[in-house]
Amino acid sequence: SDLAIPNAWPQSFTLVGLTEEESFVYPQSIDIYGDFEFEKSISMDIDFTNAGLAEATNVTATLSSESEFVTMSKSTVEIGTIGGGQTVSIADAFDIVVAGNVPDEAKVNMLITCTDGINVWDREIFFIAKAPKLMINELAYEEIDGNMNGFIDQGETVRVTVSGINKGHRIAQNPYIYGGSNTDLITFVNNKVQFDDVDVNESFEETIEFVVSEELPTGVLINFDLSVISGLYVDTKEIQFYSGSVNETFETGDFTMYDWQHSGNADWFVTDSISHTGIARSEERRVGQECRSR
């Protein structure tokens, strides 16, 4: 039956009623000697208690889980006989291995099933995993060899600064920045840049460089991935940029330099007032409320 207590923080509990002829075996306490960490081999010491009054004989216990993040290397143990109200302590009852890619703070559910061959007693348990969690917060690039005009042009060498933090609960060991691209129009100077371990809540900043091909056409959209990696933990961000710079100065006095497309009701024209560069800029005549232009 379920028990609900009014005028309190809402919680529900399952109560099991037993007669004098019944036994009820369950894992009263579980010790894994430390935290539930990634890549950790865990041995469980368990105290099995018979909450009933009747003796339980030929008792065995089995550990199971549907989680992809644990592997059972020892999942069954023989408990034997437990008297009513008694406890049997089993050292190294179960052995498991936590996966190297278990997400930080993931809840890993398990089930311990005790049975005497007739009765079956289940108890659900769970552990909260602890692992590193590297996150990229910002990507910033700069020309280090080129015309330094703020645009990524053909033949230039570009440095990307990768900034981030370890928001996990374990040190990120042997981390590195990895650059991946599916085009030969950019080439990484070194596509794998290692840096120091990153502690919990510690920030990091590292750089990676690439060279733009001389054959890269102007105005082409280039995208590639930058990843920060520690073991099996990866955070990836995409970089996009257009090659070269296309500047419309309107110095021709009209719209013939590029293939401009006009629509709507406005009459676009070129003027020499308040130009961005040079002496000319484009402007639209004032349009009415029912008019559109672009």
List the helices and strands and how they pair.
Layout: E1 2-4, E2 12-14, E3 25-31, E4 41-50, E5 56-64, E6 70-74, E7 76-82, E8 87-98, E9 107-115, E10 120-128, E11 134-145, E12 157-166, E13 176-180, E14 186-188, E15 192-194, E16 203-212, E17 221-230, E18 233-242, E19 268-271, E20 281-284
List the quaternary state of the chains.
Answer: single chain
Fraction of residues in helices? under 10%
Q: What is the string of helix and strand elements?
A: EEEEEEEEEEEEEEEEEEEE
Note the main sheet.
4 strands, antiparallel
Number of DSSP E strands = 20
Model regions low in confidence, pLDDT < 50 over at least 5 residues: none
Shape assignment: elongated
Through-space gap between termini: 70 Å
Number of helices: 0
Rg computed from alpha carbons, rounded to a whole number of angstroms: 33 Å
Classify the secondary structure makeup into a structural class. Answer: mainly beta
Largest sheet: spatial strand order: 3-4-8-6
Query: Strand percentage, roughly?
Result: over 45%
- Integer average pLDDT: 86
